[in-house]
Write the structure tokens for this entry.
Amino acid sequence: MSERSEDKTVPEESQDEGVNRLAWFLTGAVIGATVAILYAPKAGKDTRKYLSKSAQAGKEAVTETTNDIVDSGRELFDRGRRIVDDAAALFDRARKMVRGN
């Protein structure tokens, strides 16, 4: 049973880590974009290119983090389903034993 309790904490930690990474990334992206705009030594066209590239990198990071969160959710769901199936099988066996079948 201790093995199962350890399994339950791993996906939750993984999910929390993904959410935390996303929050820190978004915070950094906003700060970086603000600083870039305020202190841009380049022409407007160059600044727009830079911001476009930064936005694309941010989009890719958000997509990756989202995929990680979805994968963690699927793993958690699958583990939960296995636990429920095991519990149902144990319940059925116990019920049959009580009835004498």
The CA atoms of residues 23 and 62 lie 10 Å apart. Residues 44-99 form the longest helix (56 residues).
